[in-house]
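Re: [ENG-882] Designed sequences occasionally contain unexpected residues at chain ends

Forwarding the minimal case from QA. Structure tokens:
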């Protein structure tokens, strides 16, 4: 099917009932192109939901609302001709929608809320004013699976499959639990990046108002894995006992996923080149030599390959945790942390003015939509089944005349993700924003009354 057959007038899908049989039997060609993107932006992109989210309750009629709030938010567009347009701003959802439909950006990034409209930054710069500074920004985290290439063997780079995706599931569980239990945040959005990782948006008012030093402190709280080729021991757990946050992460998430999924999925101990990498983490040469000789002499037996990984891991744990060699018990924990603990891009979280890709964008390399992930059910998320541009267009074509009661979004596989975004994240967030706004307004009103009570 050609683009001309898919599109009507450049931005409308052919869903004429007269051609319904042809549409049901036709497949939209796979891939990513600007024509597909025009249809997506014209029919499916949730402008209203993004606007409500980014307004944080300020789009209403309450006297405490700030009508300039959304207009001070920075958006950036990456266009198809390699043009990068920063400091885009919009005063209304209509203006926001019209600009995206007109420009058809390959990527939309979201930045901070500034003190003034970012589109007018030059005027403030020429006047010598320091008004162009960020005042709010969600606390964000970025985890890429390519940063785990030294501990996964199924894929590399931007490639991902169901065998290595549990590494992202681990990151979601550890970070989400810690943000809620240790920092008291409630409104947290997790989003699939569209290709190789996950993004986290912490949207509580308290989180949005953190300064750079406070953001860096929270990022440092999570810091365990040390990057750099010159760093030999990338995980070093110090102290006689683990920090309670690390102990909880190890017991509730890391150890379970390592032993039940990654150990066998990645065949971490099935071959000499792989188990040698793990033995290098043990600081006692006599033990490593003993295990190496034992494993090398029994490459395969009646055991299956999966059994071999489990058997060798139990042998390693027994030797290290037997207590015969002082100081080696921690090695087991360090191995598990090295292979499973979240590897954060720390700079993303430290700075208020960092840009991050908007949810519901489409990744141009994969054609997959950046859909939200429910952290309560992240074990069920499969990146290989996320809707793509071509599948969404095919679903629109398949509607025919039998789905008139459904809107276009509800008739596609994207509908379930937007429903989840609204019910699990947006609605509770806006309710909280309304309560916070109301409380602040009443407190200011009472303060004003008290000032005149003399």
């Amino acid at each position: 099917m050609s683009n001309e057959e898919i599109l009507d007038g450049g931005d409308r899908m052919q869903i004429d009932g007269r051609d319904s049989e042809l549409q049901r039997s036709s497949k939209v060609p796979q891939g990513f192109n600007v024509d597909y993107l025009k249809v997506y932006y014209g029919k499916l992109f949730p402008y209203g939901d993004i606007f409500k989210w980014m307004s944080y309750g300020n789009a209403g009629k309450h006297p405490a609302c700030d009508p300039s709030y959304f207009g001070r938010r920075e958006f950036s567009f990456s266009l198809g001709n390699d043009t990068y347009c920063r400091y885009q701003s919009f005063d209304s959802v209509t203006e926001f929608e019209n600009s995206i439909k007109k420009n058809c950006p390959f990527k939309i990034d979201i930045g901070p809320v500034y003190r003034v409209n970012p589109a007018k930054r030059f005027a403030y710069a020429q006047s010598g004013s320091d008004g162009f500074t960020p005042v709010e920004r969600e606390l964000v985290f970025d985890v890429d699976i390519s940063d785990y290439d030294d501990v996964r063997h199924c894929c590399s780079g931007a490639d991902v499959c169901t065998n290595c995706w549990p590494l992202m599931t681990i990151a979601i569980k550890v970070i989400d639990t810690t943000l809620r239990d240790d920092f008291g945040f409630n409104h947290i959005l997790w989003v699939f990046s569209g290709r190789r990782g996950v993004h986290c948006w912490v949207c509580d008012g308290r989180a949005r108002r953190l300064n750079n030093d406070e953001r860096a402190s929270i990022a440092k709280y999570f810091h365990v894995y040390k990057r750099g080729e010159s760093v030999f021991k990338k995980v070093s757990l110090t102290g006689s006992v683990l920090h309670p946050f690390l102990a909880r992460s190890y017991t509730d998430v890391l150890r379970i996923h390592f032993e039940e999924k990654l150990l066998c999925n990645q065949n971490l101990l099935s071959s000499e080149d792989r188990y040698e990498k793990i033995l290098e983490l043990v600081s006692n040469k006599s033990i490593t030599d003993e295990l190496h000789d034992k494993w090398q002499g029994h490459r395969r037996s009646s055991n299956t390959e999966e059994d071999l990984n489990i058997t060798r891991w139990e042998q390693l744990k027994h030797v290290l945790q037997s207590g015969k060699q002082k100081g080696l018990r921690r090695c087991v924990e360090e191995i598990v942390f090295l292979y499973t603990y979240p590897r954060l891009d720390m700079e993303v979280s430290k700075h208020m003015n960092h840009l991050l890709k908007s949810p519901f964008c489409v990744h141009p390399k994969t054609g997959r939509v950046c859909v939200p992930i429910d952290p309560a059910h992240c074990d069920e998320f499969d990146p290989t089944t996320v809707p793509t541009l071509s599948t969404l267009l095919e679903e629109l074509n398949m509607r025919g005349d039998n789905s008139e009661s459904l809107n276009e979004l509800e008739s596609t596989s994207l509908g379930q993700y937007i429903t989840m975004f609204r019910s699990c994240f947006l609605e509770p967030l806006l309710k909280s924003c309304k309560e916070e706004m109301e409380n602040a307004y009443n407190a200011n009103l009472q303060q004003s009354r008290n000032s005149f009570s003399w």
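QA comment: On inspection the terminal residues look reasonable. The chain has 17 helices and eleven strands. Proposing we downgrade this to a documentation issue.
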